[in-house]
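Researcher: I'd like a candidate sequence for this fold, 242 residues long. If you have to choose between options at a position, lean toward the conservative one.
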């Protein structure tokens, strides 16, 4: 059994999907993110995954009103990443009702602050590790680092991280298949729960993540927006059905 996280990526107040993280290659799927969030919950989703794409590039929250609308529309836990760079921003988001914050750039550039956040907000902090060619990318994927994925993850082994979201940038939004192997390799290297993300195209990807036996969940976006994967069937597979 794994958790399936439908993705709501926010750009200019709309629900979009990018192609390989390119902000100029955004497809708008909904101009009402709150309605989209409610549709996911009505279908049976137990969690929602959100990214403030503008915020990831700006280094500060941008799509706050859309996030507020989503939180008012649903009653399931919601995790959010993008532009979260300091404790004050974390406090504001958590006070609004978010269940988990995803820290990506901060994990690379200020790991001690991430560890402090884990102490201040137990169970509320996740680390987003966005990989390109096995190396970690930051600043909304616009900047590459020389840091290896497993090397970064192991820095937080005893910090109290709730989860790691492992995204294969080269597959994100491409419908070429999730990199379950790389995510599973990461999960085997740390004791922190790992969520796979990027490239999910159909039900076989959900089956592969379940079969890996090491992953906590999977994030999917374009496959369910495009209609290439039936959400109800995907949720059944994630829950251990067929």
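Model: Candidate sequence:
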């Amino acid at each position: 059994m794994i958790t399936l996280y439908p993705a709501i990526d926010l750009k200019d107040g709309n629900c979009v999907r990018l192609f390989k993280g390119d902000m100029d290659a955004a497809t708008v799927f909904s101009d009402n993110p709150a309605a989209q969030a409610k549709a996911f919950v009505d279908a049976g989703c137990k969690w929602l995954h959100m990214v403030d794409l503008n915020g990831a590039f700006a280094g500060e929250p941008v799509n706050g009103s859309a996030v507020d609308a989503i939180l008012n529309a649903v009653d399931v836990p919601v995790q959010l990443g993008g532009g979260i760079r300091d404790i004050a921003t974390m406090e504001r988001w958590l006070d609004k009702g978010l269940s988990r914050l995803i820290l990506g750039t901060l994990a690379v550039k200020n790991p001690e602050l991430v560890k402090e956040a884990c102490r201040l907000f137990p169970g509320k902090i996740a680390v987003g590790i966005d990989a390109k060619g096995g190396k970690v990318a930051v600043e909304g994927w616009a900047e590459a680092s020389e840091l290896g994925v497993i090397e970064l993850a192991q820095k937080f082994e005893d910090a109290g991280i709730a989860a790691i979201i492992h995204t294969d940038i080269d597959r994100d939004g491409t419908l070429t298949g999730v990199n379950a192997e790389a995510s599973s390799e990461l999960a085997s290297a740390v004791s922190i729960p790992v969520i796979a993300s990027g490239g999910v195209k159909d039900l076989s990807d959900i089956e592969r993540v379940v079969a890996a036996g090491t992953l906590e969940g999977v994030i999917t976006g374009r496959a369910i927006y495009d209609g290439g994967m039936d959400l109800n069937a995907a949720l059944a597979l994630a829950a251990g059905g067929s």
